Amino acid sequence: MIIADQISKHFDGVEAVTDVSFRVGEGETMVLLGTSGCGKTTTLKMLNRLIEATSGRIEIGGKNITEEKPEILRRSIGYVSQNNGLFPHYTVAENIAVVPRLLNWQSGHIQEHTARWLEQLKLPAHFTGKYPAELSGGQQQRVAIARALIANPPVLLLDEPFGALDPVTRTSVRKDFAELPALQQTTIVLVTHDVQEALQMGDHICLMDKGRVVQQGTPGDLLLRPVNEFVHAFIGQQVADISRIYERIKAQE
Q1: Which pLDDT value is given to residue 169?
Q2: Cα separation of 225 and 215, whole Å?
Q3: How far apart are CA 13 and CA 75, in angstroms?
Q4: What CATH architecture is 2-224?
Q5: Lowest CB count within 10 Å: 85, 99, 144, 234, which one?
Q6: Pick from 10, 2, 29, 4: which is nearest to 161 by CA?
Q7: What is the reported pLDDT for 191?
Q8: Cβ-count burial of 65 within 10 angstroms (0-12 exposed, 13-18 middle, 19+ buried)?
Q9: Is 154 exposed, middle or buried (0-12, 13-18, 19+ CB in 10 A)?
């Protein structure tokens, strides 16, 4: 579904991303994992041309993305950012309806699908008339997910969508998101710095550092077969921290 072939991005001569290549199969979830500033968000945004690649080739659904106007390309790609990106002066219903209106859906069709997505994401029906400022952070992110998925895009890009939420809310939203039936057929690229989230959600992981892919493979490949000390330290430290916390809790009980 997605092919990135040696894509690079330079900002004023500075290499933010260098020769990144990967493939994402239809219905798979690929995770771009790494610390802040490693180039993972820049890589993600090149897939829907929010950032134009300096060099390299990107294909989605067998088509070079440069052969289509960016605004048309983005209508077929769902996108959720960390800060949710909701329009503050739009109601929940108006935010969710942005893409369907661009696609000239009938009003009744939009309302029907909006109600279905609110129900699936466990939001009350009366939220349609509320504004983003009237919602909690978790509720706002659920609306952003509904907006990204309402038109059933074949590809969904997620830029640390749960990162701004508190731990309890993040766990709840992530669980409800992962259980959505529509995602079974959706190709997903997820950006995160959270190893646990990557291991739980990813079919395939690309670990990045300083604008390059250091290792890519299944969660088991990175966890059990790190290619160098950086991978071992990055993955192993977070897993060790989780294990130590778990053991401490067990001891207290």
Answers
A1: 78
A2: 10
A3: 31
A4: 3-Layer(aba) Sandwich (3.40)
A5: 85
A6: 29
A7: 95
A8: buried
A9: middle
Segments of the chain assigned E as strands = 2-11, 14-24, 29-33, 55-60, 63-64, 77-80, 155-159, 187-192, 204-209, 212-217
Instruction: Tell me the CA distances in angstroms from 62 to 26, 75, 249, one per residue in order.
Output: 11, 17, 49
CA atoms lying within 13 Å on the CB side of residue 105 = 18
pLDDT confidence of residue 114? 92
Q: Report strand pairing: 29-33 vs 77-80.
A: unpaired
Amino acid present at 192: T
Angle (nearest 5°) at CA 152 between 151 and 157: 100
> Which one, of 88, 113, 91, lies nearest residue 100 by Cα?
113
- Find, among 189, 228, 229, the residue nearest to 205 by Cα: 189
Query: Do the Cβ atoms of 135 and 152 come closer than 8 Å?
Result: no
- Residues 205 and 218: beta-carbon distance below 8 Å: yes
**Mean pLDDT across the stretch 223-241?**
81
Compute the mean pLDDT over every residue in the chain, rounded to the nearest whole number: 89
Percentage of residues in the chain having pLDDT higher than 70: 93
- What token pair was written down for 12? 């004023």
The domain spans of the chain are 2-224
The DSSP output letter for 89 is T
